[in-house]
């Protein structure tokens, strides 16, 4: 059986080929799975998809009609998959439940440090041999308050780094993480966290309950010089509301590795095309905003774990085994 892998990055390909070696043949494609590319999968019982794949109802029906029976997504999030339709079609859908939390947590801190200390602006200046310090003043993290929304494995890793900086910790989640309380984290409601935190980092999944968890009301109560970092999912932030606050000159810095409408943009070269997304174009103009292209997870350690788990998910499916990574069919 040959596995068809969509949306494979150049750095990712050798890791995928290594993970599937001795298990199944694998064919790697750079194109992402969507309505236009789904027919390519015809004749492949199993496909592997990336985080920005379109796995809505129409795409799933095209896959099923072409003989696909199993979808192995190379990510933890699955908000892009219509699980109800997948179940209706008898498709098996699996994801990667977990991988190195340090990859994302460390990148969140890279964004926080970059916007706090104006690294991008400073690097641009020095390339032009402009060595002035005007406009580059940041603030110590030590002694300030870090607010962590979502204290699972990634949020806890972020909190441990914050603790190392000597920061006060506020957390919000449905359940308290003992590892975080051991660091001295105080769990509180979202409103207090938004109002008191000097640095807010998002580490919750995108669900109906968390969509726009950072909305206009949340942004309004944040400190004018707060730092906001999102390495989870773009839909957690109301981007239009964020742009409105940035236009008013608010926030010490915003680091976004994800964006609400990133599908069809991120992971692709759009440098020679006109920018049609006015909101994203506006975000790029603010000097205190840094946008990266959903790369927080992109370390050799994390990607190796992701593709190894993906290959194992396909093997389990082929052998009739079930694991915690299976989303559809639902657990009995």
TrEMBL record:
Domain D-isomer specific 2-hydroxyacid dehydrogenase catalytic: 8-326
Superkingdom assignment: Bacteria
Keyword Repressor attributed: no
GO molecular function, one term: NAD binding
Keyword annotations: NAD, Oxidoreductase
Similarity-based family: Belongs to the D-isomer specific 2-hydroxyacid dehydrogenase family.
Entry protein name: 2-hydroxyacid dehydrogenase
